[in-house]
Automatic annotation (TrEMBL):
Annotated signal peptide: none
Residue span, Methyltransferase type domain: 52-141
Protein name: Methyltransferase type 11
Pfam family of the protein (one): Methyltransf_11
Native species: Catellatospora citrea
Domain of life (superkingdom): Bacteria
GO BP field: methylation
Cited Gene3D superfamilies: Vaccinia Virus protein VP39
Length: 253
């Protein structure tokens, strides 16, 4: 393994825009949810007329789904809030006929009422249930893979100390938000997934990319903890944490 200083420099300089995690190949692994979100979304897109992907990131997953779908919807749209991801999403999705609109996370969606028969969102930072229900047509479906409460808690607590995961992302809380907006929850599944980091550079890139894990993460600010992380991985092997995922499917009556 390379020196700590080399790994530190690599982790601090690696690009972190978009939601393509290909950089982590050979550096970190994460179990995949048993339900296969991309497969589920591909099947639903293939029978939908108008589809919206909320908080699409760089559009990587949405683009893959549209490529694989047996047929593409007549109308395809997406939203994204972060400028670097917005530009990337437009590059990835424009060739597929997708309109990508800028919209702050959790804000109003810039579409008329009942515009879509399928709304999807993978790992939204926040879900505006009222807006989700508003843009869904009657009989329309919302499909989302959400980040569950206490996701990557072991990693968060290594840097921050004890963390209260709260209740906002518990499966029951997610479902209650959907029901309060008038949606009927038809599927709700939580799952914990083992994640391993093989060097400290992978930890740094992950924390720079998934910014809510350690809010305000900065290499200089957490230098001493990164030294400790590097020493632990060298002595004991990969650092293990667990991501939490919640699959939710809901229908608008």
């Amino acid at each position: 393994m390379r020196s700590f200083e080399e790994l530190l420099a690599e982790g601090a300089s690696a690009p972190v825009d978009g939601w393509d995690f290909g950089w982590f190949a050979g550096r970190a692994t994460e179990q995949r949810p048993s339900w296969g979100y991309a497969r589920m979304l591909t099947e639903r897109v293939g029978t939908a007329t108008a589809v919206l992907d909320v908080q699409t990131g760089g559009g990587e997953v949405y683009a893959e789904v549209l490529h694989r779908a047996p047929r593409r919807p007549a109308t395809a749209a997406a939203t994204e809030s972060w400028a670097p991801n917005l530009a990337l999403a437009r590059r990835n999705l424009a060739p597929l006929g997708v309109t990508v609109a800028e919209a702050a996370d959790g804000a109003e969606l810039p579409f008329p009422d009942a515009s879509f028969d399928l709304v999807a969102s993978r790992h939204p930072t926040v879900t505006n249930w009222t807006e989700t229900a508003r843009v869904l047509a009657s009989g329309g479906v919302y499909l989302s893979q959400q980040i569950g409460a206490g996701s990557m808690r072991e990693l968060s607590e290594f840097f921050l100390g004890p963390v209260d995961p709260g209740t906002g992302r518990l499966p029951e809380t997610v479902a209650a938000g959907a029901r309060a907006a008038g949606l009927t929850v038809t599927d709700l599944r939580p799952q914990a997934l083992r994640t391993e980091f093989y060097d400290v550079a992978a930890v740094i890139v992950f924390l720079r990319k998934v910014i809510w894990t350690v809010p305000g993460f900065d290499v200089a600010k957490y230098h001493d903890r990164l030294v400790a992380m590097d020493a632990q991985i060298r002595a004991d092997g990969p650092f293990v944490a667990h991501s939490q995922r919640v699959l939710l499917t809901a229908r608008k009556p």
